[in-house]
Amino acid sequence: MTVAQPAMPPAGAPRTPPSGLFPAARTRPTYREPHAVRGSAVAAGAGAGAVWLLAFGVVDSSVRGYAYWTLLAGAIAWLVSALLVRAGDRGVAVGVAAATGLGWSIAAVVVGVTWATHGNWPLW
Question: Where does the chain cross the membrane (predicted)?
Fold first, then answer.
C-alpha cells in the first residue's frame, strides 16, 4: 500500500498559509452613506444662506433692525435646513446652517461693538 503524497503547490507559491498581515480580500463589508454630503452642495448651501441673510440684513439701516432681521432670517433658514436634512440634500442643509451661524455671529459682534462704543444696549 502506498501513501499518497500531498500535492505540491505551483512554483513560487507560498508553502505556508498567509499570516493575515496582508489579506488578499476584504474580510469586512463596506458600508456607504446613502445620502453623502458633497463639497459642492455645502458651498451652494453656504452661498444661498449668505445671500438670504444679506437680503434680510439690508432691510433696515439701524443696528437694532439689522440684528432683529438677521435673527428672523436665521430662524427661517434653520427651519429650512432642518427640512433639508429630513427630506432633501444634507450638504445644502449643512451649508445653510453654517452660513446662518456665521451670520448670527456677525450680528452679535455688531451689537456688542455698538454697545461698547455707544454705552447703551442697542436692542431695546
Answer: 36-59, 65-85, 92-116
The per-residue pLDDT for range 60-114, each reduced to its tens digit, is 999 999 999 999 999 999 999 999 999 888 999 999 999 999 999 999 999 999 9
CB-CB contact of 81 with 34 (8 Å)? no
Q: How far apart are CA 114 and CA 27, in angstroms?
A: 61
Give 75-104 as a DSSP string: HHHHHHHHHHHHHS-HHHHHHHHHHHHHHH
Grid cell, residue 43, equals: 458651498
Report pTM.
0.71
Nearest to 49, CA basis, from 80, 10, 7: 80
Helix axes 39-57, 90-118, angle to 10 degrees: 40
C-alpha cell at 111: 451689537
Q: Given a cut of 90, is residue 2 above it in pLDDT?
A: no
Interatomic CA distance for residues 86 and 4, integer angstroms: 66
CB 80 within 8 A of CB 96: yes
